[in-house]
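Supplementary Note 3. Input sequence used for the single-chain structure prediction.
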Amino acid sequence: MTYWLWSVPPEHYPVFARTGTFAVRRVGKGPMQAIRPGDRIVAYLPGSRVVAGLFEATSGPFEDSTALVRGGHYPHRVRVRALAELNEEVRVPYEAFAGKLRVLDEYDFPDEDRQFRAVAQRVVHPLPQIDGKLLEFLIDTRRGTDFDTLVASLDRLRDERAGEGIAVREEAGAYEAPPSEWNRAAATERLIEAIETRGFVYEPWHVAAYVTALRTKPFVILAGVTGVGKSRLPELVAEATGGEAHTIPIRPDWTDSADVLGYEDLQGRFRPGALLAIAREATDDPAREHVAVLDEMNLARPEHYLAEVLSRIEARRLSERGFATPPLLNPTATDSDWRAVVLPPNLALVGTVNMDESAHGFSRKVLDRAFTLELSAPDLGQWHEAASPPEPGLWPAAAWQPRAITLSGLSDLNDAGRRAVERVVATLEEANRLLAPVGFGIGYRTRDEAALFVLHAAETPDAFRTRSGEPVAPLDLALTMKLLPRIAGGSRSVRQALFGLLGWAAAGTPLVSEDDVREALDVWERAGRPDALDDARFPRTAARLTLMTDRLLADGFASFWD
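The predicted structure, written as discrete structure tokens, is reproduced below.
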């Protein structure tokens, strides 16, 4: 059974109720096609802003052009029977349920009133089960249902709300640190050692940056040549921290979200997709961190098969366990058991990428929403027999939660943290003065995520090092991961962006002439084309910009990807 909110013009409601026929002109026709006999319909009168009654559908949708109301053409109809009709003086006012409905999470407006108007304007809108039962309870209270029945109904409602486990809290600043006896810096060192013991060779900062990025934003892209360990890193980290990694092989023929979220088969049964099933499993296992590895995610276009998921990630809200998304399925999904599944706080997405002629490039929509970390083979001569790995150092689920998801959500910043944020913001403002005029401007999302990455990295400073022990600056990595993947092409604007950023990252002064750029490239070539320019202001950002610029001048096309 599905609950529906049906916005009925107040002047037509008496006719709809008397004839047992709810109808729409055009708006609402699409959603109502999913209504089935037995579904419950809450009648909402938008002009009066009240709930007027509860009805049960007795038919599926049908077409009928005979006159239903004078002066109104309502051809798209559903037969209903009244379960509860409220007199005008006892109808449920909007204020009684304002801000209490989960369906509002689907609409990203600054206030609850506008969110509810967006719901009502769809005319026919499916409701989460918990919303429908809340409205049914309010209707029962207004129609004088006996006290014992109301109490039993209220108890069931409370139990179901508690059982959801993802109830959105209204108060801000609810970040909860892991238990005091858990030491993040020591745990990260044990993690690096555990991976090394297994015989896998990564730079320590690779592991630290991956963990920090995953904590900051639950969407990380791992790039690199084939066989460098992109798919293994999430598995190794999960094994060593007591988490769970699930692999989803991406197929080239994925053009929509059916294989990721699910679809309805020819018999009308809902078939959950791979990610939806993993999301439910993670929700049922809140004590452990889960990772869904989208293996070779660009064999198909992520902006097609992952579109809804990317949008939901940006709509995360604070919940009892951390930051969770709204439901992953669209409101018109017909299977109530799956419709409420969210991306829980203990589930993150990791995509692996091989950039070659068989794969698709990434749109800016995808890159802006992810941390992009390139892995390399630091030392092909380094190998050893794997030793017995240590026991997993269990990381509590709270260890993976960010301090906030926006800078405005931060609380209790100390002086060092405030200075770190101010430095990141000032650095991005400098970069933006070079990028914005040529169409690569930096948005608030990038600003916040870069600053939060640096704040989180400050909790494990010693882990950001090379295998030889040299420090790697988190801000340098944040610039490389968040700014550079977006710059691609061979246009004049790409040329200006690369020349300007290269000089700025190397010495603080943008380069303009091609002669100056070629001189910088010659210095890099003589040094052996290193991954970091030691004397640069931002060593790794400058080195990657040099590589991208070299490709632009040699091939006429610049790209972040190898």
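The radius of gyration is 27 Å. The chain has 20 helices and 17 strands.
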